[in-house]
């Protein structure tokens, strides 16, 4: 099933769907995501990467736990000075920090489910000829 990345984003990250930055972030995501690598799952890869970019760029309203949940498991909270700590885990250079958000982790799962076909493991667009 092939869907429009905007439809996927509306379901998994409504904050991005409503953002005026949506078109720019979709362009950023599509320019670094290899269509040949992801094949029929390309729309999902674009959506996951766009949501990841949105989260790491601070585009989400981080005033609520729901919006900030993309940052990882909550490991600590305090009330007086309002402090929340998140578990990020180790960041691997192989994956360009994708493991730092739930959307990046979704993209990693998709990457790991695909045959590599000579494309780097981050699913970045590195086809010198631009074709499949």
Description:
By secondary structure, this protein is mostly helical. The chain has one domain. Helix content is 42%, strand content 7%. The protein is built from seven helices and two strands. About 6% of the residues have low confidence.
Compact description:
The chain is mainly alpha-helical and 132 residues long.
Query: Strand pairing plus helix content: what structural class?
Result: mainly alpha
> What is the quaternary state of this protein?
single chain
* Shape annotation: globular
**Percent of residues in beta strands:** 5-15%
Order of helices and strands: HHHHHHEEH
Strand order of the largest sheet: 1-2
Indicate the mean pLDDT: 76
- Using only CA atoms, what is the Rg? 16 Å
Main sheet properties:
2 strands, antiparallel
Number of helices: 7
Low-pLDDT windows of residues? 62-69
How far the N terminus sits from the C terminus, by CA atoms, comes to 20 Å
* Helical content (DSSP H or I, runs of 4+): 40-55%
Tally of structural domains: 1
Number of strands: 2
Topology:
Layout: H1 5-12, H2 14-17, H3 22-31, H4 35-38, H5 42-56, H6 65-68, E1 74-78, E2 83-86, H7 102-112
Antiparallel strand pairs: 1-2
Helix pairs in contact: 1-5, 3-5, 5-7
